[in-house]
Amino acid sequence: NEGNEYFKEKDYGRAVAAYSEGLRRRCGDAGLDAVLLTNRAAAHFHLGNYRSALNDAIQAKKLKPTHLKAIIRGALCHMELKNFVEAIAWCEEGLQIDSKEKKLVEMRAKADKLKGKELEGTFLGTQTDFSSRRKCQGRAEMGTVLLCERNIKLVLEPSDEEEEVSDGLAEISLDGFHSDSATGAKVHLDADGSLSWPVLFLYPEHEQTDFTVAFHENSR
């Protein structure tokens, strides 16, 4: 109840904490735990913590496979994370439970429309105004130039063999920078020449993580 009150007041941070406390008590009721996880997923979602919200929705669905609110929340998270194939799968799973659920019907159509499209403004996209620059320089060279302009230094994982690294950056391209997330997010070159990076946030005190697909380099 406390978490619900915080949620109604749009105090989503405290709502997350309250739902987490309820889960820590481990009442042993799978149905109640599924509700708490779904509610915490909703709070995380409103905070923009889509990865954390998705994890909660997944756990809630495991506890109660027919919990429609958890399925809807999970589908919404996949939409925000640009996982359109997964969003479709979640929508179809929910529609097997309720074929007339409006949110799922509409989301399924939207996800199907967006599936397969590249994110706007990607490095290889056609909407940037850097086509002439790409023709003059290889992608590897261009990636190096963009990083040097920003004074960004990379730390490469060590290999078993010693290698010269002074000229190594000449072989780097932006589409080589990607996360290990299931989203396969990469560094994007936006139309204005700025970069957006995939970023993983760690919250050790809460034992939570969150993943942002595109974090603009000028964000503060």
TrEMBL record:
Name this protein carries in UniProt: TTC4 protein
Origin superkingdom: Eukaryota
One MF term in the entry's GO annotations: Hsp90 protein binding
Gene: Ttc4
Biological process terms in GO annotation: protein folding
Cellular component, GO, one term: nucleus
PANTHER family according to UniProt: TETRATRICOPEPTIDE REPEAT PROTEIN 4 (PTHR46035:SF1)
InterPro entries: TPR-like_helical_dom_sf, TPR_rpt
Gene3D superfamilies in alphabetical order: Tetratricopeptide repeat domain
Gene source species: Peucedramus taeniatus
